[in-house]
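S., here's the first fold you wanted:
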Amino acid sequence: MDCRAAAHALTQVATLLELHGEDRFTVQAMQGAARAVAACGDRALGEALQRELAAADTVAPAARAVLDDLAAHEGSSLLERLQEETPEGLLEMLRIPGLGPARIRAIHDGLHLESVQALEEAARDGRLAALPRFGARTADRVLKGIADLRDTGAYVLWHHARAEAERFAEAVRGHPDVLQVAIAGSIRRRMEVVRDVDLVVAVRGAPSTVAAALGRLRGVRDVLFGSGRTLTVRLEHGVRVDLACVRPEQFALALWRATGSAAHVQQVGARAAARGLVLGGDELRDADGAVVAIPDEATLYAVLDLAYVPPELREATDEVALAARGALPALLEESQLVGALHCHSQYSDGGATIAEMAEAARGRGLRYLGVSDHSQSNTYAGGLSRDAIARQHDEIDALNEGYASAGTDFRVLKGIEADILPCGRVDYDGAFLDRFDFVIGSVHTRYGLNAQQMTDRVLKALDDPHITILGHPTGRLLLTREPYAIDLEAVIAKAGAVGVAIELNADPHRLDIDWRACRIARAHGTLVSIGPDAHSPAGFENLEIGVAMARKGGLTAADVLNARDVRTVQAFARARRDGRGTDAARATDAAVPRLRVV
């Protein structure tokens, strides 16, 4: 170990000692020793101890004991003990600019807070300012520090974050002392954008020792923060990873806690407390202080008389109350999708033929494909003329005849993604739209209308009986374009009333509607269509992401249009044209459990 690393370790010891309320003379001794060791630069610690640091009065005895331990074992038993004894939430608070260990201790002692989220709430609701020697200015500085901390990382799309997480998790699995690795946090909860990757790692031996080794793995650009068994690193591509190394018996509870959300963890913790149990750190203890074995997350929920809550639902809406009644919805599975109704071909802006797209859909186990190239007004995306549509329909008829003659249970549907024009009219006249099996109506222009204008535009389009699905209803592009102004609930409510499905566009840059709006759709009895918006065979991979977002929105197979067979989808579209759309839509069953809309 070199002297710079030893100085860093001494600084950590001093910080944690102060956090634990150690006397100031010991803390100052560690700080002074850290400065003396840092002055030795890159020299090996053992050599410096024999030379520059050899004099008896250079460092205090307590600090020398730490240095001897570091030199002999490249680790400090004192540091590891302090790290193990410190609540991880307090270690997280140490990352907040301008918030030192003394104040964190005062916050913990005064308010019993153990997370940045709880600290932020206390700073906003006045509890922090009410602490002795804090006040409103200090609370404001804490809020600014939390904001600055969050600004150090940039959001990335869910699928990008997951890919980075899986790559780094694979590297972590290669360490000989790693027993198990799981991706947690917002990735596991299927948030559409992610700031940090969270990994929980079960290890043999001392968790802090393994965590330090993982910080040196290939692909790690730098260590942003190291605190024993938890470590924050930045990967070469800029993604931040929070690593939590734990003993095997702590793994399930650590995974649950790291998955979050913080509010869900708090709600479950309150339920445990009401039953005389204590959820502290990565252990559950009974009223006698004995550790309750938690081999998996399902056991944790069962001990608290709760049904297992899938990670996607852990957002502190109504999931805990529903779990207590055994009334959580049976979330959609990807295997329940039987068709895809938003796909493009070479006729407009797609990169493959209809036959190639059909075979790709069949390869994923789907039983029908809805071709929905762009309509004539969408010139930038190669919108189809009437003649081009006639040719396309002839090609689709031939493909279906081939499938039928071969006894293949697969069908290609004739669809169109028709522009909703600024006036609210749907592209093409009604007689021409009658030629299609289904119509997706989408806004592709004039995003700058105000909320009233855009809402009126879309509501008018929903009066057209040819529309089967309202495509990407807010127009957002994640991290690139904000959603246009619209009264989305009014639109969703009307769609359900007239028998139009709302699209969950599964393009990972869109995910539109989002999972929050899926809850609104379910509350109104409005069907959702999960559209891959596939422009090539690879685009069908978007269905996995769409299902993840649908699950997060609490959707079941009964809530999803393309979880129904092709005849039902065709009947749904025909009923809309015949004025029977409301009858074709799924009636809202009051007995079906609902997740509260937030």
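And the second, which I think is the more interesting of the pair:
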Amino acid sequence: MKKFIYTIAAASVMFTSCVKDDNIPEPAPGPTDSELVLNEIMSKDTGDNPDWIEVYNASDAEMDISGYILNDKAVSDGGFAIPDGTKITSKGFYVVDENESGIKVSSGGEDVSLSDPSGKLLDHTKTPDMSADVGLTWARMTDAGEPWKVSSPTPGTSNGSAANTPPILTAEPMTEHTLVYSVEASDADGIASVKLVYMQNEGVVTFDMSLVDGKYRTSVPQANVGDVIKYYVVATDNTGLVSYYPEDGITTPAEFTVIGGIEEVLFEGEEAGNRGIVTFNATPFYADQVDEIRLYYFLPGQTQDDKEKVVMTNVDGVWSGDIPAQNTDDIVSYYLRVEYKVGTKTYFPMEEYDVDGNVISEFNHDDGTTWPTYTVEEKNYAPVVDIDVTYTDGPLSKVTFPENPIPGTDILVALEYASAEEITEARIYFDAGDAPIYVKGNKIKGEDDASFTQTGVTVNFAGMVAENGIAVDAEGSTVSFYVRISTATAEYYYGHDGTMHLDDTPGGGTTDESDDFKADPTLWNVYNVQ
């Protein structure tokens, strides 16, 4: 056999010169005269079936192959040693799969070798790229003979014994959101064509599917909400045999109805523990076909019968709606409803139905116990006991809180000014877990010396209860606050680290930094009741 192989190789070089077919593997290194040979290799089976390697005994006697080595390399090192006591009858087969051997042969092409127990190479082949040949094998045309070719699988039986069969066609169901549909099709005789027959309402279109990266693919036209889509795939081999997906696709094609839905929902507020206003941003499928999206929710103490409705606002295909700020540990239940221009509705989360229209999914918009929820988390700030902050901009130069005040007592907050400009009003705004409440300071008149101290701003935590009912005088409670100083021309907002934010629009200016500042309590001062 060795002499025969080298004769063929030499002739091939003589007549082909420098022409090379990339689909034909490199010639194998010269094997020995062993009658134990590699015979067939599966490197990409259908589904999750494992790879396997077949060895053939071409001799007239039974052979003990204990310790012989199979490998996915051209050498024996690191390969799989065939278990002790393994024998092959004369003209018989030994098949071992990946689960036992640990050998996974790359579908992109790989060396496979057989060596004796000493490591001496007995046989070797290099599989071609089988990525488009799912369910087929790389096999000798006849047992122990030449050449090798892509073949229908015959594990444990003689090569060439497989009858001519229709193509192997593997596919997954298409959905309304499929933009590119792909299937796998292969046949030992070669694939002549793969086609998608696509029926949208009463229209029928046939698409030729192209082989790309081992799969046959085609683009799928966008449907409309309410459309009924039917389809099937037909694969034809070079002998004229055909396979279908679904198997009876001509008479009973696959089918689905386009219902739409929401592609993505983003929540603004999660990073802050859902404190404050929580904004929902929803991106629906078929945005141009949407008539309206609504956000429904109910709060602790309410039921779905008390649910609130928010008609969301559309900006460039993204619908937005808000749930107001709630208290710490409150659980908010919600869902979204999309209504399309054709009158159909869908929900987020998505509902699923049986043939009679009954809801069979976990989520049911008519059952508030199944709605998704979020919990308002506690607001956490770095502990601060003594607030003594100096400012360099505007009329306020310093704000001082007393150190370690007694809970439940009046707290005197000192505001020091450094300006001759008339100050019309001083306020301190506190946020105790909901919309800010504020305590007004005394109105101050300007002084000629351009420096004066106002000491009359008194905050009585003992009597302060936020609109959400949270008392702010309890030991360990946390309060955030800012100071607002008003003059005839501007308002000055003072936060932590000596920052000052200006709004001079009341005086006819153009600067207004106040809205962003007021909406972000992380910029405010923090006071912990100890």
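Why I say that: Residues 1-31, 380-386, 442-458, 460-475 have pLDDT under 50 and may be disordered. The radius of gyration is 39 Å.

Talk tomorrow,
H.
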